[in-house]
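Page 47, continued from p. 46.
Same chain as before, 428 aa.
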Amino acid sequence: MPHFAKPAEGSWTEHYPELGTQPVSYRDSISPEIYELERDAIFARTWLNVGRVEQLPKIGSYFTKELDAARTSIIVVRSSKDEIRAFHNICRHRGNKLVWQDYPGEETSGTCRQFTCKYHAWRYSLKGDLTFVQQESEFFDLDKADYPLASVQAEVWEGFIFVNLDPSNTASLREYLGEFGKGIEGYPFDKLTQVHKYRAEVGSNWKLFIDAFAEFYHAPVLHARQAVAAESRKLIGYGYEGLAYGIDGPHGMVSSWGGMSPPKDLSMVKPIEQKVRSGLFGPWDAPDIGLGELPPGLNPARHKSWGLDSFVFFPNFMLLIWKPNWVLTYHYWPTSYNTHIFEGTCYFAPPKNARERLAQELAVVTFKEYALQDGNTLEATQTMLESRTPVSTFPLGDQEVLLRQLHHAARGYVDEYQQQMPKAPVGA
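Result:
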């Protein structure tokens, strides 16, 4: 269960003795062998967020998602008013990728009445049934009912669409998301339909970028120059301490100060932020999204300086809920042991006028600048970890407890998977 009250003595980390306090090895971030195990143990077995319901506004709306880490591509489609389905993106005839445009590796989206393979024109309904076979009479004892699309478990939580590729999985999505998911249910995510997206190919292990965003210990140093000079010096002097940390199963969260709007002293921020009334923490004038009282899982410390809560839903989905009523999500999609695709998405209430639109766009480009600063360290980290210098373990502080948790959880999934693997016969 999560702990949200730090004792007078001790630390956040010590609430979770299974994590230990010793220096941590980062071998899991530089090993091709461990990455191959993670693909099967983690990405082929856990619930993965692949989008939101707003991407599927009507019956027949669909999008594809490339899940390289799980060795597959999927189709996600609204098959009826109240049902969203997912399928492996493969034709049952000869194994061609079923839905793609000019380049088979690129994701696509659209609306259709059925899915038609561009190779031999086999057709499938929105529910995955095989409905048409070109020259069907020339096949031998072919029963179309035996060849539906290969389905993938799909569930929706608070408008977020998740899939699970493991057909033996029996835990529902809501069970998997645990106390953190339950604690933020009811937040009006559906009101935040103004969306801005970033996507970048990053030359590092997927866990290293999660590490970068799962702690704010770096913020006063790495991002100091984003503040005016006087504030930069203050930030470095003050350092950082979270308001609360929590761990529940493989998931983690950090609650942080920030996001006060407007700042008590306008000289603290840059002139453009003063003019537009916005910045990294989002627009200063929070829109009315019908929120009312915060869900119980937000601002668990009930701190007056609360600004945001950042949830790390294992393995690769981060959800940040900001005090000024906007949301930020991060996804980290592995493509090899030392590369991944990062996706950052900003969600706002639709702006009512030009000033509100400018306030949102300033928040979006400011987030991009901060993300670039974070991302700029990753390849340097990956390179030196791969150099295999005599330095092999690294100390983590109490503000980095979620980093310990992430690598601990990943190792746990890999260890469990290896224990379940059938033993090769002696002499094989």
